[in-house]
Structures are given as structure tokens and as C-alpha cells.
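thread from #wetlab-drylab

HS: before we spend reagent money on co-crystallization trials with zinc ion, can we at least see a predicted complex? here's what I'd submit
DV: go for it
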Amino acid sequence: MKYCRFQFENQIHYGSVESRDGEPWIMDLIAAPKEDLAFRLEHECASSASFDFEPMPMSAAGLLAPVTPSKIVCIGRNYRDHVKELGHELPAEPLFFLKPPSSLLKPGGVVCMPAISARVDYEGELALVIGRRVRHLKPEDWRSALRGLTLANDVTARDLQNKDGQWTRAKGFDTFCPVGPLVSDELDLEAGLTIETRVNGELRQHGSTLDFIFAVPQLLAHITAAFTLEPGDLVLTGTPAGVGPLQPGDRVEIGIPGLGVLTNTFQPDEA
Ligand code: ZN
């Protein structure tokens, strides 16, 4: 099953997604997951659908981030070639950090480049969507923890990351976590997924999840040994080699076959 989250006639909906002539279409409305209702009560006006829905191309929908996480956990340094390009040693255990939910951005949204940073980088990543409350997960139970997979951009102010000595500010600016366009539980993670990032159409990152230093079962066991993951939480699994700085006006596309393409543009923050 594949689904997306979108706005239509001033209401927020979830829709099942299927391929029609090679294009993703929203075929029908589906129930919102429980965590989304809690999120909307806090952030938006909750409402329910009561109209006949006609299928529409996903490209014509007002897409929103397909998840409403209580937290966004990110893995640093999980592809060998990226560790090398940054000049670091291979980590002995997974290194993780958090991005705040306020950094979430919808597919097609504009990433605001903060004036206090001179270098904003893209990081194309596979993201895990958590499906149930999990704590102290055994590695062999990893499948039961997942609702599905999606795409994310772990946008990073590289100069501030180096300057601060820790990563909260550099990775946590508003709009620094584009996510989507859809969530799928149809992919075979163990067979390996190919992830590619393009900037203005030019290929910059090409990696396989088979090159993870730490596989998903280990990542989830390691994270949930520290804190509880809730339904809808995101785990960004790290980025392959090829990260680099962006200029205002750049368009970044991150793709994995079966998960569509996450596209966002970058502009200076006018605030
Ligand atoms: Zn990252």
C-alpha cells in the first residue's frame, strides 16, 4: 500500500496511491492515522471528509509531508563513502541526532537558507516511518516496527555544523527536513534500494542501502535502547557520498524507485 497526505478544499486528507500509465495517482481517501489527529488538534483545524472523491494525479494535489512525527531521528555517517568524503573514521556504533518537527517541509516546498549560514548542503536519505510504539526493539523484530518508507532531505548548514561542535542548530532550521511525497510498505529493503540525488537535473549522489554501515535492524535496536519511538516518527538513515553546497534557486530531487521523487527548491530566508 502506498499513501500520501494532501490538502483539498481546505481539508487535510490521506489518499491511497497507485500507478496509472506510469504516473502516481491518488485513487481514494483513506483514514488518517491516530497520531495525525493529535497533531492537527495542536497545529491545524481537524476536519473529516464528506464528499465524493474523484481520482486525481498526485502531481495535481496540494501535497503535504506524509507524516506527522513526534520526533525525527537521524543517523550520521552510515555510508562508507560519505564517511570517507568527510574525512572521518568509520563509527563503532550508530551515531544519531534529532531534527525538530518544526523543520518538516512538504514536497515542492521552499527550503529557506538562513542568512547566518554561508553553506547549506543537501543530503538525500531513505526515511523509515514508524508504525507502532517501540522501545527496546529486538533487531529480529524490526519489520513489525515499520509502517513504511519515504524520502527525506537532511538539509544541513555545514559551516554551522562545524562551528557549533554539535548539530542541533545546523540541522534544525525551519524547512530543513523536506519529506515525501508518499509512504510505501511495498519495497524490499533487504534487496537493497538505490537512492539518487539531483541538483538542477545533474546527478550528485548515487548510493545503495546495501552499503549501510549499520543495517536497519541494528539502527532501530540502537535508537530504541535510548528512547521510545511513536507511530509516525521518522528515522533518516544517513546519506551517501556526494553532498555539496546549494545556491539560491537550486532545485533538489531525491528519488528511490517505488517511492517517487521528492523535489524542493532553495531560496534565501527573507525574514
Ligand atoms: Zn544526514
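DV: The helical segments are 34-43, 80-85, 142-145, 158-164, 168-172, 216-224.
HS: ok that's useful, forwarding to the group
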